[in-house]
UniProtKB/TrEMBL annotation:
InterPro entries associated with the record: MFS, MFS_dom, MFS_trans_sf
PANTHER family assigned to the protein according to its UniProt record, in alphabetical order: SHIKIMATE TRANSPORTER
Compartmental location: Cell membrane
Cited PROSITE patterns: MFS
Residues spanning the membrane: 63-86, 98-117, 123-143, 164-187, 199-218, 249-269, 289-312, 319-338, 344-363, 384-404, 416-432
Source organism, top-level taxon: Bacteria
Name the UniProt record assigns to this protein: MFS transporter
SUPFAM superfamilies: MFS general substrate transporter
Domain Major facilitator superfamily (MFS) profile: 26-437
Pfam families: MFS_1 (PF07690)
Membrane protein topology class: Multi-pass membrane protein
UniProt entry tagged with the keyword Transmembrane: yes
Coiled coil: none
Species annotation: Microbacterium gilvum
Amino acid sequence: MSAQHPNAGPLTPTGTIASTSDRRRVAFATVVGTTVEWYDYFIYASAAGLVFGQLFFEPAGEGVATILSFLTVGISFLFRPLGAFLAGHFGDRYGRRIVLVVTLILMGAATVLIGLLPTYAQIGVAAPVLLIVLRVLQGVSAGGEWGGAVLMAVEHAPRARRGLFGAMPQIGVPIGLLLASAMLALMNALFPGDAFIQWGWRIPFLFSVVLILVGYWVRRRVEESPVFAEIAERKERTSAPAITLFRRFTPLVLLAALVFAGNNAAGYMTTGGYIQNYATTAIGLDRGAVLTAVTISSVSWLLSTFAAGWLCDRIGRRTTYIIGWIAQGAALIALFPLVNSGEVVLLGTGLVLLTIGLGFTYGPQSAWYSELFPASVRFSGVSISYAIGAILGGAFAPTIAAWLQQSTGSSDAVTWYLVGMAVLGLVATLLLRDRRGIDLRPSAEEAQSTGLYAWQR
């Protein structure tokens, strides 16, 4: 064995030496990459709540156009499993790094094309059809990106700091929301009224070109995951990882998916554009002020996500989640009364309170998911669980919320729907076992395949 480099850091999960600069490069790359991916994704969701109903579905009438616009947000989730299956297969067979680069380019290209898309008034029914096609491509990309970013971060991390390193790709999500909301707020200020609706909304989509180039450059400089490198060296790559996953670990996939569903349903009140639409149309608040409030809440979401990643290395993934579910449930009960007050400051307060709970039920997810699944099917396991959870939770949460609001004439039904999803996430959390610090190497596959559930010891 070669001598340790004087600037080298602690052992990676594979037992090789990782320098501090290597680990920082990986952490930075996962943050930048997921920020770019989710900026693209959230720009669409925010625009769907603000302008897409009018631009692409106006002949359906105002109320129906809003629901159709939110449906296009949800449709992409149906294709996340396809992205997860493809990314899981190629990620477990050929490595994490190549998947990250491909998904980044696919997401960015779809986003830029949306920014160039003619409206219904210009080309008729072809406009919403093309919009849906591009949104599907975003869904495929999002379904594959997250698992690769998570495993690159966690599998490079020192064993005692997986939660903190795993929080790096997680904070890319609130940063992406922050950038998306800030860009739309800026465009709304620079191009008010009809100018924003006519073409001001397009600029944030076209700006994605710059982000793609930055993300591509950063991700190309990152080394392959040490766990996958050992899998390849040992020639233990699974030929059909998704089939193996479902044959052996179906209950685990479903429980992990429900954990994410509880978080995702509440999260998509803002990331899916529902609160933005509800606050501006039903309550009558200024669009720019609402976007500013969402931007501020993105900062609190970022901080709470990072804090939860740090904390879960000390008190465990499961305990951190339980704290988060309690905080999230309390915030959901307070959210709509604060929004319905018609005061922007109270709207912002409600969103900040919500994002604290969201951060604590999101920050530990990377580390916990990575420690739940064996090395040979880990990419497939984390990606597919995430994609299924996104469908069960966030896919149609804005659509369901809009339908409940219109059907009942009250936001109370929306509140109890979201609280019910949080309770479902809490139950799934209690049924899973905390496996903090488990050996992630391929040589520990047997231990990784047992003791998955809370009732097992």
